[in-house]
Write a structure and sequence with these properties.
alpha/beta; 147 residues; 5-stranded parallel sheet; Rossmann fold
């Protein structure tokens, strides 16, 4: 029996980062379905399964940028972790900000980890591969999917 693919929600407004993340995860060891939200409001609509997203599965993992249009990633993180149906979903903050205040605030809002995106292409690829290795291969995610 083939294991169910891991459902990942990438919340990212930078098209190049989306494309690169898609490519790296496609080559990863674990089969996954990558959904993309281009801003914070769209991410929350997808997570809450509001129309037209009512048929989407709830993700097993969220990769969240902080600096998003329409609704900031910090607010998205706050709403995820404040919602009883969503709060158990691991959230990896993946952002360009290396500001200590952002790191502290993200952990106060219960982010599961904080990764500063490297600007170098090869380092960015290595970071996404490390997310694939750790979160999709090593970590055991909750079995209750599609909630």
């Amino acid at each position: 029996m083939t294991p169910k693919p891991i459902d990942i929600l990438l919340v990212e407004d930078n098209a190049a980062d989306v494309r690169l993340t898609q490519e790296v995860l496609r080559e990863g060891k674990v089969k996954n379905n990558l959904m993309v939200a281009r801003d914070g409001e769209e991410a929350l609509l997808m997570l809450q399964r509001a129309p037209p997203h009512q048929d989407l599965p709830r993700p097993d993992l969220i990769l969240l940028d902080l600096n998003l249009p329409r609704k900031d990633g910090r607010e998205v993180l706050h709403q995820i972790k404040d919602d009883p149906l969503l709060k158990a979903i691991p959230v990896v903050v993946l952002t360009t900000s290396g500001a200590e205040a952002d790191i502290i605030k993200s952990y106060q809002l219960h982010a599961n980890c904080y990764i500063t995106k490297p600007v170098d292409l090869e380092q960015f690829i290595a970071v996404v591969r490390s997310i694939d290795e750790f979160w999709l291969t090593v970590v055991r995610l909750p079995a209750e999917r599609g909630r």
